[in-house]
Structures are given as C-alpha cells and as structure tokens.
Write a structure and sequence with these properties.
Helices cover about 35% and strands about 20% of the residues. It has helices at about 5-15, 25-30, 35-45, 80-90, 115-125, and strands at about 65-75, 95-100, 105-115, 135-140. α1 (about 5-15) crosses α2 and α2 packs across α3. It comes from Novosphingobium aquae.
Amino acid sequence: MANLDQIDRRLLAELQDEGRITNVELANRVGLTAPPCLRRVRALEDEGVIRGYHADLDASKLGFAITVFAMVSLKSQAEDSLRQFEDAMRALPEVRECHMLNGEIDFILKIVSRDLQSFQELLTSKLTPAPNVASVKTSLTIRTAKHVPGVPLE
C-alpha cells in the first residue's frame, strides 16, 4: 500500500465494490479523465495488485445449500507433505478456500456442498483419505453475519 496514492486507493475501492463499472464512470468517481484512469487501472493489474474480476454468486441459489469449515491436522509438516495436501485440495472444486495456519491446526478449509449427504461423501472419500491427513474436524455454518470480499482500503 505504501506505493499507492490516494487516487489509486479510490480506484481500488470503487473496483472492489463494483467490478463491472465502466472506465468512464470510474474516472468520474475518482476525479480523472478516462485515459489516465485506464492507464492507472492497467498498471495496478500489471503490478498484480488487481488479480482479477469476479462475480459474487449466491451459492444457495445455485444448489449449494451448506458451507462447512474443516480444520485439518496433518501427520507431517514437511514441505513435500504440505504441497501434496495443497495440491489435493486444489483439485477439489467444493474446497473454495484453503489456508495454512500456525498452531494446533494445520489447515482450515471453506467447503461448499449441495447437502449433508454430499458433504459426507466428500469428507469420507476425498478429504479424510487425502495425502498426509491425520484428522479432520468440521463445523457447519448456521448463518453468515458478514461476508465482505477484498480488503479495507480506507
């Protein structure tokens, strides 16, 4: 963030809130004309600050009725073992997030599933037997009080 000026931060905040905004509207909102606005956005993309643009989908309307968080402990924390587990999780489309943690739990996963039966099948046939897994503890989401993608820019 140290290399970003106030206009860059405003551009990022606007794009984070509304990724489909036109360049002309974005320029108007941040006080630029369209050409320098587009140059700044492209520079932010080239620098990897903006990694992509995504639609925010309603999982339940697409048939994914449950979200589960799984806390995974591994048998070994050797780099090769970690990579094997991470590769296995990347291959599972239901695993939407996979974060390595420090402390008692090695990884936390965010998993979406159509129903409990589908989740149980994923758990017993793919997650528990995944490379190097020692144990899996799961918690079913009851409701989501806050879901804000991105990072605070103000």
